Amino acid sequence: MTGDCSHLSFSRARGERLRGLAIASGLRKTEWYPWSMRVMLPRDCDIEQPDADEPAHGSGSWLRGLRGSPVLQWPIAMSERDPRGVLRAPNFECWKKASASRVGIAGYHFSFKAGGQVACHSSLEARLLAYFEMCPFVIEIRTQYPQWNREAFLAYCEEGRPFPVNELLTIDFMLTILIPGLPYPIYHGVSGKPSAHLQKKKVIRRHDRESGGLWEWGATHEIMTEKTVDDTEYESYRRMFEHMKYVELAELEHLGVDARVFAHDLLVTNATGNARRVVPMLGKRRGWDSDQSFRLLAVAIFLGYLKWDVRHLYAPWEPLRFVRP
């Protein structure tokens, strides 16, 4: 779905300039639809609704339920904008800064799939970001994704009034997911919320607004909690990122070639012992030192050539635990 998005603002600065300045002439009177663009459909058009048995309020994860071992193709080729007209990474700008967080430990975190620094408003969002980064189904990450009602925006402009900040909704994560066999990407919104807050009426209403708005333009939505990614898995991802901390975006395509070869070596070896023994030993046969070997191991997991068994801790003093194809 691609529509006329010329009136929409795609950065915070441009949004400030547009508020209350644009005048929509000849605007017809329509109903109020919250948080998203409205698509006018014929009266006899049937719309598929979400299944009634879909996991509700964090009881399960659709993304974690995906099966298979896709390999992330780098560099990732995508159009300049998504179907809603919003810029893609790395040109996308987080609508809310990290400093806008009122609860939780906020900060900026580097993301390869976002093409740079992204704002996370809590430690839970940082935990989920680490999982999305290492999930090969996810090809793009945008945090603090803006969503607002197109007709409401035009109505405020027609009346010469500033568009209220509380009419703008931001989704914690907007993921672009590519599933092998599907000829199109899936746009998947994720809201991070502590499990203890899921049953609060205010939280439920917000999540219903988020999912309803996303569903209107063909995106999906789910809720994730601290239980989605446990402490062991999160600690493992942080160690993998530590091995990749000197990797530049432009290097990934070149490193992917060596990572694929190294992944094969790790899967077929009969060597035993912990990772500190096995990884440098196999890397030395290829002419790499210990740091290079662990870097290529982390890149291989990032790209999907290797799949780590997240039930076990990733650490140099632990054995390698891969999910075998």
From TrEMBL:
Gene3D superfamilies on file: 3.40.1350.10
Matching InterPro entries: Restrct_endonuc-II-like, tRNA_endonuc-like_dom_sf
Protein name: TnsA-like heteromeric transposase endonuclease subunit
